[in-house]
Design a protein that fits this description.
Mean pLDDT: 90
CATH architecture of the largest domain: Sandwich
Protein name: beta-glucosidase
Order of helices and strands: HEEHHEHEEEEEEEE
Organism: Adineta ricciae
CATH superfamily of the largest domain: Immunoglobulins
Number of strands: 11
Structural class: alpha+beta
Pathway: Glycan metabolism
Enzyme class: hydrolase
Oligomer: single chain
GO molecular function, one term: beta-glucosidase activity
Strand order of the largest sheet: 6-5-10-11
Length: 262
């Protein structure tokens, strides 16, 4: 595959590479080639694959896809590999994918959540407020009940009660209609010993050119808790929590940031 891309790129001044893959690949053999002008990660193609590709490549549809994993520059950067034995020791704990890269200050080729568009977006007016019972909706309540229907202890339903509302505004500042995926990352107080930031919510928003939409994402009691391995229970740490609204796990892509204390 690498040799094919290199050969085509050596003869074509504008080469767009389309990748069909369900997992990470190393793009380094050709990603910096001067004739590789774009990469379209299409995952597993379906029946309308050809039509969809044409619409995107010729600009008839504005893409808004986001990477569901980090793409490293070196295979060793992931810190894990396929085991050749029947036993595996999961020593990485909660430090998986972007959490591992953040912890070890490793710069990847493309960050988790990364994706481009034919338009641009701006973020503004971040507000963090405590959630009350008035914030429940029928859908949210039903969703919480389904997630916990297997539990005998119904008091665990409170574990998924909304705790904080995170409200902000997204504006399409470009000339094309399009969509953006706002990603909410949460940083815990030091005593929790958690990754530098953890994805706690996201939402795809379709916005017409020059229009704005207000978005509200919720943090539940579960979202602000961590598993205390000493006490063997979910715990809410005391201290400062940092909310970051971003378009990927790259700290350079953080658009809004604020804190709250517990």
């Amino acid at each position: 595959g690498d040799k094919l891309v290199q050969k085509v790129a050596s003869l074509c001044s504008s080469t767009i590479v389309i990748v069909n893959s369900v997992s990470q690949l190393n793009l380094e053999p050709w990603i910096e080639h001067p004739n590789v002008t774009g990469v379209l990660w299409s995952g597993l193609p379906g029946t309308e694959y050809g039509s969809a590709l044409v619409d995107i490549l010729f600009g008839d549809y504005n893409p808004g896809g986001k990477l569901v994993f980090t793409l490293a520059k070196n295979d060793s950067d992931y810190g894990t590999n396929i085991s050749n034995t029947y036993n595996s020791n999961y020593t990485e704990g909660v430090f998986l994918d972007y959490r591992h890269f953040d912890k070890n200050n490793i710069v990847p080729r493309f960050h988790f959540g990364f994706g481009l568009s034919y338009t641009t977006f701006s973020f503004s007016k971040l507000i963090i407020s405590k959630a009350g019972d008035e914030n429940y909706s029928i859908g949210q309540t039903f969703h919480r009940q389904r997630r916990l229907s297997a539990y005998a202890n119904q008091h665990l339903l409170k574990f998924y009660d909304p705790a904080y509302n995170i409200t902000f505004t997204i504006t399409n500042t470009g000339e094309r209609d399009g969509s953006e995926v706002a990603q909410l990352y949460l940083s815990f107080p030091e005593e929790a010993a958690q990754p530098p930031k953890i994805l706690r919510g996201f939402e795809r928003v379709y916005i017409s050119s020059s229009r704005s939409k207000q978005i509200t994402l919720q943090l539940t009691q579960r979202d602000i808790s961590y598993w205390n391995v000493i006490n063997q229970k979910w715990t809410i740490a005391s201290g400062k929590y940092t909310v970051s609204i971003s378009t990927s796990a790259n700290n350079a892509d953080i658009k809004l940031q604020d804190t709250f204390n517990i």
